[in-house]
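A favour, since you know our structure tokens better than I do. Would you make up a two-line entry for one protein for me to read? Write everything out right here, beneath this request.
=====
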Amino acid sequence: MERILLYIVSGETRTSWNRAIELSKSLSATLFALFIVDKETVRKVANLRGKDEIDTAIEIEEEGWKYLYHLEEKAVDSGVKTALFLEEGNTIEVIRTFVKDKEIDLLIVGHRRGEGIGGRKYVRLIEQLIEYIPCPVLIEKEGG
């Protein structure tokens, strides 16, 4: 196993980050970190906030880079080689293409317990990752 992909989700706790760094280090694998600016999410957030979609996308992108740089700092401190990516598009399509193009051996994603519609949407995303991503998927349950 040479390439591990960590899909970073906005607002998640860092349990999946720790697992990805741990595995990458123990396997001497490169850790790819991916944050996705999902167009559907941008539209919904912009509507809720009464803001322009372009401004909202920029805010989400800036937040994504903060997550990516924070992860990189933790990984480098642990001696793990990293590669950071921020992409825009449909989450499943972006991850699927990324996994194929970069020949990813394992996808790691955190799973947090969610309430209401947002929680159900996240569970559906996890189901789609398992179904459509052409590599093993490790679901790291946040909080243990």
In short: The mean pLDDT is 89.
